[in-house]
Amino acid sequence: MTNLQSRLATEIEARRGDLVTLTQELIRIPTLNPPGDNYREICDFLDLRLLRAGFHTQLIRAKGAPGDSDRYPRWNIVARREGARPGQCVHFNSHIDVVDVGRGWTVDPFGGLERDGKVYGRGACDMKGGLAASIVAAEAFLAVVPDWEGVIEISGTADEESGGFGGVAYLAEQGHFARVDHVIIPEPLNVDRICLGHRGVWWAEIETYGEIAHGSMPFLGDCAVRHMGAVLHEMEETLFPALARKRTDMPVVPDGAKQSTLNINSLHGGQEEIAKDSTGLPSPVVPDSARMVIDRRFLIEEKIDEVQQELNDVLERVKARRDGFSYDIREMHRVLPTMTERDAPVVTTVTEAIRATLGKEPDYVVSPGTYDQKHIDRIGRLKNCVAYGPGILDLAHKPDEYVGVDDMVASAQVMALSLLSLLGPPDNP
């Protein structure tokens, strides 16, 4: 390390306790999504913290975005700090929402427990530890490097777990990323990895139709559930084997995600479920509708039209051999794959910072699922973006989720050295 790099790393180590405390305080604000709890509370908390560090802040509500309502407003915060001279803009983006707690916890999911070098809680790994690390990295940089050029931005954004439309997508639609040069998203992809992008996703709802009749005389009706069963059988026989044969050159992790995949997200046929507090029985009818939601993940080598056509072909093959078969298929959501080039400025910068901090070469990976890079790329038109942050990907959304303190410190050091490289004084080696 150079002298300035060493001073930055030492400064962040000295802020270890503050980094832990900040992570705990963020975890203790339960920003569950759905429905979108406490977004304003966490934005107000971040506002006070970043104002103290000399940032100018904006609290931005994504009015009219999916999920936004007066009961659950989609609040975001963007903080901006300008250097002594004009220069490039480095933006750290973290999502503030967390998923449902689920069962199986042995610690308080919103307690922020620190134990054995780990901070536990829902969102510790995904991704409040990364948010805290980016803030501490920026504050340490400002303390050690007073003479810098350009702009540092830090954002906390809503709804990444449900698509990001009330968060990064909204900011991108407002043109925010037009003034940004480099984006680092501190998602938990492991501290020695740089995530270049993600696979594509296509969600759709398939509905099969039948004819209602008395359940004692099903021959007088037409069972939509049986039609859907035929669709499932056709998928098992032809579609799933075809997807398993598709492989990518993208460095997707884990290895199973290097192929195309399809998940049946939900399946329902017939009458609506009886309320849990009801003691009644369902009525005897032949179901005239069955619905299935699919989650198709596809590779950068695939075209979205081909992905859709594969599903249409499945349905048409079933239709050709089943009397009375009819269906609808409705697109719910699509995201195209994205992957930043390895020689992009932000990639080479973070690479050098990992070498200096960890003394090793990083692994370059691609995420099996999507995250907010999709909006920065497709709407914001900014390709120079990576995900890099603390945490183990496999712990995301799990019970007893945690983030390692050593990993948070190391990732903050990498982020600070990246700032030094991109914005530091002109004579910085």
TrEMBL record:
It holds the Pfam family Peptidase_M20. Residues 197-320 form the Peptidase M20 dimerisation domain. The keyword Zinc applies. Its cofactor is Co(2+); Zn(2+). The keyword Zinc applies. Keywords: Cobalt, Hydrolase, Metal-binding, Zinc. GO terms for molecular function: hydrolase activity; metal ion binding. Belongs to the peptidase M20A family. This is Probable succinyl-diaminopimelate desuccinylase. It comes from Pseudooceanicola batsensis (strain ATCC BAA-863 / DSM 15984 / KCTC 12145 / HTCC2597).
